[in-house]
Write a structure and sequence with these properties.
alpha/beta, Nucleotidyltransferase, domain 5, 26 strands
Length: 560
């Protein structure tokens, strides 16, 4: 039974910070800080909290926050003062939740499962302190989840900084006291995602850019690689750290610091691609081992995947392929952006004991303030199709943006995938690396015709990579990666569906290249003004504003 009067406000103080408000069990406000501040991966949701305040949604009953720390410290005290001044709420109703619990809640409460195992595979979770010393950090967690609020940890893996000399046996006792019903794993320095990071560091990318490593991995050699894990633990002899003065020192393969480069070319890529493929194969194998273990232990066949590694579409394919009798849900807002969502969901269920099962229908719920544009010409779907057929790049702007990191049609750049050079064209528009793949959006009814779907009927959220059939490789090379795969989104309604339907009738092509409406290193476009600025400063050809049915082409306007 719902308790309608309960309103929960939650936010996270991590990279990819966000704010979420839930009322009557539904999201009424969600905002990722970087979309307002325009600072990529912004850690502090000041603008989002102030925006929420300005909208006067109503009385807040509980405020939740999540930091990497469960000790509190300065961030907690600072935000207590900030929140106290901003909102009229009793401070005893201002509290924190653990990082991995929030991740697990965001996936489980969106999955549609009444009961499930939820696997959180992440680089860093909450910090566990021993006498105020940063002793260890969460890396992987397994939860048994059921309604309304039974998210029970079955497994907790932590990594510790071996350089500070903490006694591992004492540490295990400390962790066991905190999680008495969990299996406990403690490793020195490394975790599944931190092993993956070794290749990311090697290609000169920040630690949160593992998606680039995933794209490069497909160019690696198909050869046998040595195992990077033994008995569930990373083999530490393979790795070292680059000491940079930060608590999150970068991981790299041992002895290869001098090979670091962010200039991966078609002449030098082989070494780097092999390393990327190595960590891709080994980490997905280790993740699968963990998934199998707890499925066998609990006999639960519903599985949710979340955490930073949950965005690895290649690994997600690997799980589905190897466990065909398991029902998987891959959370589309799997990174730290989803922490605020999970915190709000969990607190709502905990307070109200509401047993209503919810299935995520879409993630077009990012807040934006609509505005009118005085430029452009009236246009139809036919006009957009004509531009695409003329090999023009067309951005689509519709309503509220996607909450997660992947474009699903409300903030997208589209291109005709029949053009074998379209990847180079779109990479140039976005200033992206040459080796990165693009996603394809396809009519749901045509999904099985062009992809090996692993028995799935749809792929709404672009969370899985699929093998392309031979006819796909031949007909639509623009969405086919070097390993003959494609990250696929299926559509069966809405503007993008109507556009694809019309394009298919004209061209016999039911698929379009789909990538996010932003430039490399920039947050996703949120407002119409930002979309127009992007048109001005990039080589994008046109933007279609769906709600207003207005088209702006670069060659037809002088200034914006």
């Amino acid at each position: 039974m719902r308790k309608n009067s309960v309103r929960i406000l939650a936010f996270n103080i991590t990279h990819d910070s966000s704010v979420c408000s839930i009322n009557n069990g539904h999201i009424e406000f969600f905002c990722k800080e970087e979309r307002l501040s325009r600072v990529k991966r912004d850690k502090h949701p000041f603008k989002s909290l102030q925006l929420y305040k300005s909208k006067n949604f109503g009385k807040i009953d509980y405020i939740l926050y999540c930091t990497p720390s469960n000790y509190g410290g300065e961030p907690e005290f600072f935000y207590r003062e900030f929140i106290g001044k901003l909102f009229d709420v009793e401070m005893e109703n201002f509290s924190s939740l653990s990082h991995h619990l929030c991740h697990a809640a965001s996936a489980f409460y969106n999955s549609g499962f009444k009961k499930a195992l939820t696997f959180v595979i992440d680089r860093n979770g909450s910090i566990l302190f021993d006498n105020k010393i940063d002793a260890c950090r969460e890396s992987e967690s397994v939860f048994s989840c059921s309604y309304p609020d039974n998210l029970k940890p079955l497994y907790k893996s932590f990594w510790t900084n071996d350089r500070i000399g903490i006694n591992k046996d004492n540490l295990k006792k400390l962790i066991k006291n905190s999680f008495p019903s969990s299996d406990i794993q403690v490793d020195n320095e490394y975790s599944i995602t931190k092993v993956y990071e070794a290749a990311t560091t090697l290609i000169g990318q920040p630690i949160l850019e593992n998606g680039k490593t995933m794209g490069l991995a497909s160019y690696g050699s198909n050869k046998k690689y040595p195992s990077l894990f033994l008995n569930g633990s990373p083999i530490t002899n393979y790795f070292t750290h680059i000491i940079n003065g930060d608590a999150d020192n970068e991981v790299i393969f041992n002895g290869e610091q001098d090979k670091i480069t962010n200039n991966i070319t078609k002449d030098n890529y082989k070494f780097y691609a092999d390393k990327a493929r190595h960590v891709q194969l080994e980490t997905q194998k280790e993740s699968l081992r963990l998934i199998k273990k707890y499925i066998n232990k609990t006999k639960i066949k519903n599985v949710c995947i979340v955490g930073g590694y949950g965005l690895n579409v290649v690994a997600n394919n690997y799980y589905v392929k190897n466990l065909p009798n398991v029902n998987f849900y891959f959370e589309p807002v799997a990174d730290d952006t989803g922490i605020a969502i999970g915190a709000a969901y969990f607190k709502y269920r905990n307070v109200t004991k509401d047993n209503t099962v919810v299935t995520l229908k879409n993630n077009f719920y990012h807040y934006y303030e609509d505005s009118k544009i005085n430029k452009g010409v009236e246009a139809t779907i036919e006009d957009v199709c004509k531009l695409l057929m003329d090999q023009k790049s067309v951005a689509i702007f519709e309503g509220a943006a996607e909450a997660g990191p992947r474009a699903l049609g409300h903030r997208s750049i589209l291109f005709d995938p029949r053009n074998k050079n379209c990847k180079d064209t779109v990479n140039k528009i976005k200033n992206r690396e040459w080796y990165r793949p693009f996603a394809g959006v396809i009519l749901k009814k045509e999904f099985k015709k062009y992809f090996n779907t692993l028995g799935l009927e749809e792929s709404n959220n672009m969370t899985i990579n699929f093998e392309c059939k031979k006819n796909t490789v031949k007909l639509f090379p623009g969405v086919v990666h070097v390993d003959n795969s494609c990250r696929v989104q299926t559509v069966s309604s809405g503007f993008l569906y109507n556009l694809l339907n019309h394009f298919d009738k004209l061209t016999k092509c039911p698929i379009l290249l789909n990538t996010s409406l932003n430039l490399a290193g920039e947050p996703l476009v949120n407002t119409k003004e930002e979309a127009l600025l992007l048109l001005n400063k990039s080589e994008l050809d046109a933007i279609y504003f769906v709600d207003e049915k207005k088209l702006i082409q670069k060659e037809k306007h002088e200034s914006i």
